[in-house]
Design brief:
8-stranded parallel sheet, about 35% helix, globular, binds zinc ion
């Protein structure tokens, strides 16, 4: 007997007359590992990326450089990541972006993309000729990843895209961010897939002011953040609680691993479990690492493996492991690559 599990992108074939299960991706046949397809439940991690994300070039000496993506993808090109199933991010539809951004702001941004040279949106958020496609691929990749976990073709997904998104407000670019990829993704999951409750957990060293503001009046959305405080952007005090759906744990410069982990075990994780999400999204910034030049939270690489594993436990308990992680900050190229490596290794643990 031959069984076929079909998704928009992948055909899974299971048969008792074959020795193995197979998947067909882009007309190529792959043998599935023994534990990759259990009773029709696909256990695998996807990676979304796109070369256009390297063409967003905010100028020399800008920390949010194309080199970041090169470092991340070089790490994920190592042999231990060969089981990642890789896709190019599609372009986002403008209607999807308008789930969280004002249409006039979207028009303003797309018209501001220069044919030559650079355009400054604020003192550190800059558009180059390649930025238009990069920002549309950023949102598109997150939404495609959400399709994949909700259609149960992937257990979880890492989106290796830039620029980051969590500082972007409904009508304002800031902090290297233009469109708020993860906040749009959360609303997209609700509007397109009928998901009830979506949580975002943000361990970037900076507070995700944009995500908080987009979520703070909606009890079906949850935002939990650990971040250095005081630091850019100045928001994220513990008193900012929205309608009971915002959990901020500000950490003083120099806090280190113990206080970071305590922020999760004592505060963010219990409240996330109480919220009981149907989908968990991660704003995965790695700029809290001790080597990062922008802040001083002094985390070790192992802390990023730990927090990923803890969040996966919650996803397993609450929402069948449905988890999408998207790259935010991280500006020391070596530390960024190592941290993404342990993060994605944890995601692939199944
Ligand atoms: Zn950051």
């Amino acid at each position: 007997m031959i069984k076929v599990f079909e998704s928009p992108k992948i055909l899974y074939i299971r048969s008792d007359i074959f020795l193995h299960d197979y998947r067909v991706v882009d007309n190529k046949l792959f043998v599935l590992k023994m534990d990759e397809c259990k009773g029709g439940k696909i256990v695998t991690t996807y990676l979304y990326q796109h070369p256009a994300c390297a063409n967003h070039e905010p100028g020399p000496h800008h920390p949010e450089s194309p080199d970041r993506l090169e470092s991340v993808l070089a790490k994920l090109g190592e042999v231990c990541f060969e089981d990642l199933v890789r896709f190019e991010s599609p372009l986002a539809q403008l209607e999807v972006i308008s789930l969280m951004h004002n249409p006039s702001y979207i028009d303003h941004i797309l018209q501001a993309v220069p044919a030559n040279g650079l355009v400054q949106l604020d003192h550190d958020t800059i558009l180059s000729p390649g930025s238009g496609e990069a920002i549309l691929r950023g949102v598109g990749g997150v939404c495609a990843a959400i399709d994949d976990v909700l259609n149960v073709v992937a257990n979880n997904v890492f989106c290796a895209m830039r620029p980051p998104g969590h500082h972007a407000e409904a009508s304002q670019a800031m902090g290297f961010c233009v469109f708020n990829n993860i906040a749009i993704g959360a609303k997209y999951a609700q509007e397109t897939h009928g998901v009830d409750k979506v949580a975002v957990v943000d361990f970037d060293v900076h507070h995700g002011n944009g995500t908080q503001h987009m979520f703070e009046s909606d009890p079906t959305l949850f935002y939990g953040s650990s971040h250095q405080f005081p630091a850019y952007p100045g928001t994220g005090e513990s008193s900012e609680t929205g309608v009971g759906n915002i959990v901020n744990v500000p950490l003083k410069p120099g806090s280190g691993s113990e206080l970071f982990r305590e922020a999760y075990t004592e505060n963010i994780l219990p409240k996330l479990r109480d919220f009981n999400p149907d989908l968990l999204l991660i704003s995965a910034g790695f700029d809290a690492h001790i080597q990062d030049p922008l802040c001083q939270l002094n985390l070790a690489t192992a802390d990023f493996a730990w927090v990923t594993q803890e969040l996966m436990l919650v996803a397993d308990e609450c929402c069948n492991g449905r988890l999408v992680s998207t790259l935010e900050g991280g500006y020391d190229l070596n530390a960024l690559a190592e941290c993404v490596g342990v993060h994605v290794t944890a995601l692939m643990r199944s």
